[in-house]
Amino acid sequence: MRKLTRELLDHLPHDDPGAMRSRRDLRRINFFMGNERWIASAIPANTRHITEYGAGEGHLLTRLAGKFPQAEITAYDLAPRPAHLPPSVKWTQGDLFTQAPPAHGGTLIANLFLHHFTDPQLAELGAWMRGFDTLLINEPHRARLPVLLGKIAAPFVHPITRHDMRVSIEAGFRRGELAAALGLDHLVQESVSWGGSIRIFAQRSM
């Protein structure tokens, strides 16, 4: 059963020194897990629109803006727009549940973001997703291997990161859980990575 507990990083101001160190840790963890590489490789080459839920510091979108110069890119996050973000990226700050989904469809990305929500909230987000052609979702896999990898990494990361890794794995998903919670009407391909992620590649039925 999923255990949903708020992570420490959720409570801290964006410019808190501990939060800033923890976000650096998360970038390294993301790199180690290969999450952004998988997302960048899975986006359809002809996509015209890319949207990210929970864009954070915008590092993934900065990378994608260079790889997909033809695409319109939109980000949603509670945090303010990062200063380094390319001007071509549209940034929408605020609560996602108060925002209307973009009408253009295209590719939607959610990277280590959806495990923060309850099942009723995920159902609401699933309805938000239905207009997108392609979904790329990467979340913690709730299993023994990610727990072991977290313990190995613990001495090398900030205490906030150490705490939040455990919490995020406990709030993660097993096979089938996330697609069911979202109520996806897309054709879903689900996989588990060696680095501790559960991944969904889904395309809307035509």
Question: What tags apply to this protein structure?
Answer:
alpha/beta, single chain, 7-stranded mixed β-sheet, 206 residues
What can you tell me about this protein's structure?
This protein is 35% helix and 21% strand. It is of the alpha/beta class and 206 residues long. It has a single domain, classed as Vaccinia Virus protein VP39 (Rossmann fold). Strands 3-2-1-4-5-7-6 form a 7-stranded mixed β-sheet. Helix 5 runs antiparallel to helix 6. The longest helix is centred in the first third of the chain and has 17 residues, at 17-33. The protein is globular. It starts with 16 loop residues before the first helix and ends with a strand. The mean pLDDT is 90.
Short structural summary:
By secondary structure, this protein is of the alpha/beta class.
The residue-averaged pLDDT reads: 90
- What's the number of extended β-strand segments? 7
What is the third-level CATH name, the topology? Answer: Rossmann fold
- Total discrete domains: 1
- Side-by-side strand order of the widest sheet: 3-2-1-4-5-7-6
The description of the largest β-sheet is: 7 strands, mixed
Helix content: 25-40%
Second CATH tier, the architecture: 3-Layer(aba) Sandwich
Beta-sheet strand percentage? Answer: 15-25%
What are the secondary-structure elements, in order, as H or E? HHEHEEEHEHHHEE
Rg on CA atoms, Å: 16 Å
Under CATH at level 1, the class stands as Alpha Beta
The low-confidence runs, each spanning 5 or more residues with pLDDT under 50, are none
